[in-house]
What we know:
Elements: H1 3-6, H2 16-35, H3 42-53, H4 58-70, H5 76-85, H6 92-96, E1 124-127, H7 130-141, E2 145-151, E3 168-172, E4 177-181, H8 182-188, H9 191-201, E5 207-210, H10 213-218, H11 224-227, E6 237-239, H12 240-250, H13 267-275, H14 295-321, H15 338-350, E7 355-356, E8 361-364, H16 369-377, E9 381-384, H17 391-399, E10 403-406, H18 408-414, E11 423-425, H19 432-442, E12 445-446, E13 462-467, H20 468-476, H21 509-513, E14 517-520, H22 521-524, E15 525-526, E16 531-532, H23 546-549, E17 554-558, E18 564-565, H24 569-584, H25 588-597
Parallel strand pairs: 1-4, 2-5, 5-6, 7-12, 8-9, 8-10, 10-11, 13-14
Antiparallel strand pairs: 2-3, 3-4, 13-17, 15-16, 17-18
Amino acid sequence: MTSSIYRFKMALHITDHEKLSRLRSAICAFNSKMFSHGSMSFDAWLEIITDDLVPRDPYSLRHFTLNDLRSRGNTEEGIARLLHIWDGADGWIESSGYQGMPDGKFHPQMECSYYGLKLPREAISVVDSKETFLISLEKLEASDIIGIDGEWKPDLVEGHKNLQLISILQLATRSHCFLLDFLQLCCILHLDDWKRLSDIFNSPAIIKLGFALDGDFARLEEIPVFSKETTANYPNLFDVKPIVKWLAAKDPDMFERRTEREIPGSLTGIINVLFGEPLDKREQISNWERRPLRESQIIYAALDAFCLIEVWDVLRSRSADRNIAFPPGKMSPVKMSPVKAEVFQRAAFLRMLKVPASSKKFICDTHLEGLCKKLRNIGVDTEFADKTWTEKRILEQTMRDRIFLTSPARWAIVREQVPDNRCFFIPSNTKLDLQLMYVVKHFNIFSDSVLGRRCSSCNGDVFIHATRHEVMLLVKLSPTSEAASSPPAKPAENVTENARDNPIPTAEPDFATCFKNVVEALESIDFLTGKITENGISVAVGSLQEFKMSHVKHYYICSSCGKVYWFGRHVDQTRHVVKERLLGLQPQHQLKHLWKSLTWPAFGLDLAYCQ
């Protein structure tokens, strides 16, 4: 996907003003791609604007979009189409004084020459039923070569860190191209059906071709038969991209005297070098989950897979002319990012397990303090390795089954010193929520409570339950408390059992149940000194405010450090992040596979939704 997609992401925690600003920037970028650069098709642009971006705040973004288009050239057809869809856009014509009203069809100023598909239209099949799937398998099994490519909906919300699963998988032979509709097939096919497709990839009699295939196969990983294998395990599977680079290094004359460094890195660039015309990529950024697919999407998808076979034939022919052995031996795939490489290396094993949060133990390096707190908030035992931690201490902790999370640079050094699978790196330049999502999905952790089962400050897991009245007594003993100026509270000895009849609050049941190891304040706190009896630590009530305390009935105090917890907006925000970022943003067909292997009772989700 192009960089313009990744520049305008709306994280869950940003303000409404920031979100609106980024939405406007994204709209301007796509308007520019469509009407200034011509790198999108008109229909793909229309889908993104009307189905994804503008509906997030239609009242303000409709007028903004129309005004931005009006400031550009050759946009009359786009304005007319939007006005028709939006029923005049709430009086925008009158308020703006706009007078141009063409037919609403886009008329490009100049049509470029693109490389065309050599297959007839009737040879392209959209496979969206079990019957057509079985027919396609028969033809694929009889083929000697298959071109593979995948399409997925661009993620305009979470960014490229959130791996979108495949919507369309294209499999092309010399005479046919099958577009496997995963939105439909994932709902109707069984494991045995997918096994037949996996057997085709595993067949040594069939040459399989792709371009940067690691990304395509990674998006198939929720289907069990694909999660057990990586691209390196399939026989006769070739990535065209490194082969072209390798041949250019062998003989630059093969590509019009282009050296390895001068060969384009994209498929459309290689097609242009070999055949004199580039691929038409204007449908790449479009909604691949919308049904039915448009005809231009079908042609684009088929060509992306079929052209790999044509490239293969040209490379084989030119290699034979120059006495270069072809195909080359086993080649390393195009190098993925370190984070993806670590994820995919162990994903097959880890995804087979259901791991309670309490069963995993981590150590977060110095720069991952924020991630450390996030993990503790979902009940994961996580130590923070500040500057006082030595390498020896880290090694000792990893020997006790703790997993060290660190930076890529330190990982390259430490991983050889610690036991296997006890050192992983986390991209430090990503947002905290994405770091949390990476760890949870990588280690397949589900929280067996709601949230906040460990102290985010000290990693303690024993909490002291206190009522509002008991906390007010502690506040009076703290000279730094913002609520200390309120009227005097009753003495500690006047606390009766009637005031503690219901220690588990009914207003916040999820919040109360996330504290498993709970003791009562009367038994654990000295109300004369305001300190925890066991260790002499003062209860941290200094930041409590009286107007907030009037709305909270129950508090939970960490018995190790004295930090006070209560139900509030911050708890809702954390729950929202975990539910939406880790679960809620995936399409229904992707969730079906997730729910078959994992259950998430902690978040109160209705599992029947995916049955």
